Amino acid sequence: MTTEAKRTHKITLIPGDGIGPEVSGAVVKILETAGAATGVSFDWHTYDAGADAFAKTGEYIPKALYESIEQNKVALKGPVTTPIGGGFASINVTLRKKFDLYSNFRPIKNLPGLKTNYPGVDLIIVRENTEDLYAGLELMIVPGVAQSLKIITEKGSTRISKFAFEYARKFGRKKIHAIHKANIMKVTDGLFLDCARKVAAGFPEVTYAEHIVDNTCMQLVMNPYQYDVILTENLYGDILSDLCSAFVGGLGLVPGANLGLDCAIFEAVHGSAPDIAGKDMANPTALLQSAILMLRHIDEAETADLVQKALEAVYTEGKTLTKDVGGTSGTKAFADAVVAAL
Hints:
The chain is of the alpha/beta class. The protein has helices at about 20-40, 50-55, 65-70, 90-100, 155-170, 190-200, 215-220, 235-250, 285-295, 300-315, 330-340, and strands at about 5-15, 40-45, 75, 105-110, 120-130, 140, 145-150, 175-180, 205-210, 230, 255-260, 265-270. It has two domains: about 1-115 and about 250-340, Isopropylmalate Dehydrogenase (3-Layer(aba) Sandwich), CATH 3.40.718; about 125-245, Rossmann fold (3-Layer(aba) Sandwich). Helix content is about 40%, strand content about 20%. The protein has a ten-stranded mixed sheet with strand order 2-1-3-12-11-4-5-10-8-9, sandwiched between helices. Strands 6-7 form a two-stranded antiparallel sheet. Strand 11 and strand 12 (about 265-270) form a beta hairpin. The longest helix is centred in the first third of the chain and has 19 residues, at about 20-40. Keywords: Oxidoreductase. This is Isocitrate dehydrogenase (NAD+). It is an enzyme of class 1 (oxidoreductase). Pfam families: Iso_dh.
């Protein structure tokens, strides 16, 4: 390895709010240390989003942030608070739709040294990211009666199915389950299944199966090891992602990637946890593992491997973990331990 920077990557950084600035600061420190060892440097273009951005610019997603993502093609995003039952639209959903980030990719895998009720889980959730009820087409028909439109298209269902099967082929995954509720929603979920089946026919080396979403929840709790790649619509994927995070220790550990043809945004799947913001308690692991996915996306595998090994070394040792996973250390101490392990 060399300490001379050979490659510089321009990355849009959205620190987020709540615990966002703390975990993103920790991750940036780790990446820059690893990059210095592998000849990689980062040019961070930092922007606020959400309520903090509105207070400064009058926009929840500033125009400059949109332009930065368009130019850099890759962003790392901390958690941003989304108001419940009112207020501005989800920043996550807005960015996904704006840049057509149609694939939400979430690997669920145990970290070494961390005891859970489900050791050895290793599955992938591939979730359609732009359609379904998350299209945001809602209206009040008459007072007391609201409606939300479920949007499923052949284009959206086909391309997310292709993503899942092409990933399985490339990385040797053997089985894909398409998750649905077509027994009730025969038209929308029926279309999703029809597209998945047509794509599956072109990948005979990958076993294809289908599970109804409520049964899937039960099956996952009873035996998550029967699943390899889970292919799902937007809403089901959001719910199943949180459920599966419990297998490996919780939302503070699970990474996420939003992938499109031109741009990609990598983010932790957890929220902004305002109750512990500024208290040096947050676990940066989820965002760090999202950053590792980002490093692989920008073809910096050596740096990604270095960070992954350092992270796993800290968990294996178990002496400098945050409280959510049974430790007593804070955000900064955890980040320093990963840096030391590099």
